[in-house]
Amino acid sequence: MNTFLLEIVTPERIVFSEQVESLSVRGEEGELGILAGHVPLVTPLKVAPISVKSGNTRATLAVHGGFLEVQKDKVILLAEGAERSTDIDVERAKAARERAERRLNSQGNRDLVDHRRAELALQRAVTRINVSSHSKE
Ligand code: ATP
């Protein structure tokens, strides 16, 4: 099967740079599957797990929003944050999930910006927990 270079980059580091056969992401407009030779495009991404396949190996990574850019010869995923499943500290993510849930449930908190921030923190934490559970399958 044909492969393409996938680079996953955050403001902090290069998280992933490998030849892969397919990539599956959750875009703002729905699920998107990419194979070699896909038409060039740019699309915003949700906070969600992504899946990468190469030969018999399938990897799941946590991607915390950003953009996917399909170029002619490679695919760049410019993420606000991203982690490989093996780099995720699941206890930290569970603590972050609890903090975010507490903030969302607190009656006094009517500030929209705080609410949105807590929602995003919850999405990041849940994504990390889900990705981490994949790595133990
Ligand atoms: P926390 O409240 O635990 O810091 P957060 O969602 O606010 O979580 P981010 O601001 O998204 O954290 O990330 C800050 C840095 O910490 C990034 O480099 C990110 O990859 C890393 N990070 C955050 N949570 C985890 C985790 N559970 N396991 C591994 N790395 C993490």
From TrEMBL:
Q: Where is the ATP synthase F1 complex delta/epsilon subunit N-terminal domain?
A: 6-82
Which InterPro entries does this entry report, sorted A to Z?
ATP_F1_dsu/esu_C_sf, ATP_synth_F1_dsu/esu, ATP_synth_F1_dsu/esu_N, ATP_synth_F1_esu_C, ATPsynth_dsu/esu_N
Highest taxon listed in the record's lineage: Bacteria
> Keywords in UniProt for this one?
ATP synthesis, Cell membrane, CF(1), Hydrogen ion transport, Ion transport, Membrane, Transport
Q: In this protein, which residues make up the domain named ATP synthase epsilon subunit C-terminal?
A: 87-132
Q: Which Gene3D superfamilies match?
A: ATP synthase delta/epsilon subunit, C-terminal domain (1.20.5.440), F0F1 ATP synthase delta/epsilon subunit, N-terminal (2.60.15.10)
Q: How does it assemble?
A: F-type ATPases have 2 components, CF(1) - the catalytic core - and CF(0) - the membrane proton channel. CF(1) has five subunits: alpha(3), beta(3), gamma(1), delta(1), epsilon(1). CF(0) has three main subunits: a, b and c.
Protein name per its UniProtKB record: ATP synthase epsilon chain
- Name the source organism: Paenibacillus shirakamiensis
Lineage of the organism: Bacteria, Bacillati, Bacillota, Bacilli, Bacillales
